[in-house]
Amino acid sequence: xxxxESVPPEIVQQVAEYFGVLSEPxxxxxxxxxxxxxKCVQDLVEATATSQANVSKHLKVMLQAGILSRRSVGxxxxxxxxxxxxxxxxxxxxxxxxxxxxxxxxxxxxxTLASRQ
Length: 117
Hints:
The chain is mainly alpha-helical.
């Protein structure tokens, strides 16, 4: 990535907004539900155990951000992930968090062992 001073402010704003879309836990739950393919809104409501209004609100945000695509069949709306790169991004973050948690666990174990001696 280029140094921050050479990146136009509108680009920085767009990147921040994209990450902002991913900062909502319900949106991550929805993305995880869509990992194995397209689903209708009702399937997503059941998978996330929340209201249809809540699911629809979050789907709309991700649709507007270009993360999801939507198709209609009769009165049903089906959503799918537009760009699978989103899963690579999520995997990178999860791997980093797992590494940190593992390091913390080692520190806790070392502390516990030291206090027992």
